[in-house]
Specification:
There is one protein chain. This protein has 14 helices and 34 strands. Helix content is about 25%, strand content about 35%. The chain is of the alpha+beta class and about 600 residues long. Bound molecules: guanosine-5'-triphosphate.
């Protein structure tokens, strides 16, 4: 295929604005999949693809489209679409020359519309704005104005579509050909291909998706992955339609996949450059940066017998998700589990949901932590677990990660949103941007630790759902951090430790004592619940003693009823965790530790 007839593009949108539905219609109109009227067949095909480990919606797919008697190759490169993966999003975007910016006409521009658009503009992509869901009656008239202002385009540049019923889809395809430029590249230069995504397939191992910038890739060629220096053989190369279409050669500017017997996705890094092992390119397409987990949490099976099952499920998940990290840990309160690292909150939610859906394992997930930089006299350590926090005397300074948060909301909620963010150590940045619809965009610099717990829930409540937010990592800044230690009956419970900012320490200490004193059942002796900071007790509650005899209510000498009750009590004890002499139901720990908004 001549490079002039190739178009590489992605679809960017805020969640639920219709990205996948639009992709479906494009695939149908180009006959890459069957007509959407014939849903069974489409779904069957997709299930088959899923079994083989390829889901066309979330990766690259190639379509052919005839425009003015010329067949064009349209490569739709799907992006992960969320800031947790923004590093990867910007790489997928870098593999394209154009982007379809989809906006739901009933919701208008939202926070992720803006952040994804900026990522695309940074890479100089041609933007085709698309107003979706025009079949719905509650279309917002100011939506067009907002798009014009955001994209700096004219109203005639916006294509109105209904991805649901197929209206306007042909126009989208025509405009992709007309407005998005063909890729540039030198077919005679040494091979440089950028990996923009990868997928684990149980039959073939890892499939790496790439876009050829210069040169070409041939079947059987020895390839060098530039960030690791490792050499692999291209056993199979090809393009992705509904199925993998094996080819002998992928040309400059085109998009394809390579199978080279790699068994772990972490060997294939998004953003890495592939070159020829014998005649390598002198440099990579762009500087390679490793994505690092930002949010850490412990994951324990609800049923402690499922620990081994959880381990093997996590190992399988990791094959598919190179950004997930985990290491074993144990806690007297929760048993055996794993300390995991995630790219962000959404990534964490996805992993937990996949553990449940794909492997049938329900887990407790503890309050997330961010990773702190602790500077001591001679070294700096990274701490993402309260139990690794060094003694205060050894610490010179602590730094915590900050993020840039943008919030889009209605004018009447702005006051309470600003108070919420300031209460969470946020600092307002720049001016408030007024959108034509009367909505406002505000930007804050905030510690990441402040948004990973209940921020989103609070934002939704105070804005009655009329606020969307997005964040990107900024830098590390000095912080006055305290480690809160919980003592139950004078015994430290490390799994309940927390790292909090100095301003919150006292409030948190009181709250923890109060919550635990309600959750832990009374015993035959009184139980002090204490919270300490640097060895000093700053809060305390006492659970009063109670003598409980479960057979009290049995009258006469009903032995069998007595035995039944004692048996029941014994069974209940199995579900208890012991902290010294204190027996605590696992459910109490779960209620206390679990992330409330998952
Ligand atoms: P994420 O993958 O979650 O980011 O969502 P998305 O942007 O891919 O949106 P998706 O295509 O899943 O659509 C979200 C919802 O909007 C679905 O219920 C679709 O059926 C619906 N939808 C999409 N396009 C249209 C449209 O043109 N009209 C109407 N009425 N509904 C639509």
């Amino acid at each position: 295929m001549i490079i002039d007839y190739i178009r590489n593009f992605c679809i960017i949108a805020h969640i639920d604005h219709g990205k996948s539905t639009l992709a479906d219609r494009l695939l149908e109109l180009t006959k890459t999949v069957s007509e959407y009227g014939n849903k069974d067949q489409l779904l069957d095909d997709m299930d088959l693809e899923r079994e083989r480990g390829i889901t066309i919606k979330s990766h690259a797919v190639q379509m052919e489209y005839r425009y003015k008697n010329q067949v064009y190759i349209l490569n739709l490169i799907d992006t992960p679409g969320h800031v947790d993966f923004s590093n990867e999003v910007s790489r997928s975007i870098a593999a394209c020359e154009g982007a379809l910016l989809v906006v739901d006409c009933t919701k208008s521009v939202q926070a992720q519309t803006i952040s994804n658009l900026y990522l695309a503009l940074k890479k100089n992509l041609v933007i085709i704005p698309i107003l979706n869901k025009i079949d719905l009656p509650h279309s917002r008239s100011e939506c067009v104005e907002e798009i014009i202002e955001l994209v700096k385009c004219k109203s005639k540049d916006i294509i109105s579509v209904s991805a649901k019923n197929g209206l306007g889809i042909k126009e989208v395809l025509d405009q992709i050909v007309k407005r998005i430029p063909p890729p540039k590249g030198d077919p005679n230069a040494p091979l440089q291909a950028m990996i923009f995504d990868s997928l684990y397939n149980p039959f073939t191992g890892v499939l790496a998706y790439f876009r050829v910038k210069n040169g070409y890739i041939q079947k059987g060629q020895k390839l060098r992955f530039m960030s690791t220096g490792k050499i692999y053989c291209a056993y199979e190369i090809g393009t992705l339609k509904l199925k993998r279409i094996s080819k002998d050669r992928i040309e400059t500017g085109d998009v394809g996949y390579v199978v080279s017997g790699i068994k772990n996705t972490y060997e294939v890094k998004v953003g890495d450059t592939i070159t020829d092992a014998k005649y390598p390119a002198s440099k990579a397409i762009s500087r390679f940066e490793e994505v690092k987990p930002m949010v850490f949490s412990s994951v324990y099976p609800i049923n402690s017998d499922k620990y081994e099952e959880l381990r093997s499920s996590m190992e399988k998940l990791q094959l598919n998700d190179a950004a997930l990290t985990f290491s074993p840990e144990s806690s007297p309160a929760l048993g055996f589990g794993f300390h995991c690292g995630f790219l962000g909150l959404l990534h964490m939610e996805i992993v937990i949901a996949r553990l449940k859906r794909e492997y049938g394992i329900s887990v407790i997930i503890t309050i997330p932590n961010v990773s702190y930089r602790i500077f001591m006299k001679k070294k700096m350590i990274i701490v993402n677990h309260p139990s690794n926090f060094p003694e205060v005397e050894k610490i010179q300074r602590v730094e915590e990660p900050y993020v840039l948060v943008s919030i889009l909301t209605k004018e009447n909620f702005i006051g309470s949103i600003i108070s919420l963010c300031i209460g969470k150590r946020g600092k307002i940045i720049g001016n408030q941007d007024y959108l034509p619809s009367g909505r406002i965009k505000v930007t804050f610099e905030m510690p990441l630790s402040e948004i990973i717990f209940d921020f989103y829930d609070k934002l939704k409540t105070i804005s009655r759902g009329y606020a969307s937010f997005d964040y990107t990592f900024l830098d590390y800044r000095i912080s006055d951090l305290k480690k809160i230690t919980v003592l139950i009956n004078h015994q430290k419970v490390e799994s309940l430790s927390l790292l909090v900012h100095k301003n919150e320490a006292f409030f948190m200490a009181k709250k923890i004592c109060q919550e635990l004193s309600v959750l832990i059942p009374k015993h035959q002796f009184s139980i002090p619940i204490q919270v300490s900071i640097s060895g000093k007790i700053i809060a305390r509650e006492t659970i009063k003693a109670l003598r409980k005899n479960v057979t009290d209510k049995c009258y006469g000498g009903d032995v069998s009823r007595k035995r039944k009750l004692l048996e029941k009590q014994k069974k209940g004890k199995k579900k208890m965790r012991k902290i010294g002499k204190v027996e605590i139901p696992s459910s109490a720990f779960m209620t206390f530790l679990k992330v409330k908004n998952l």
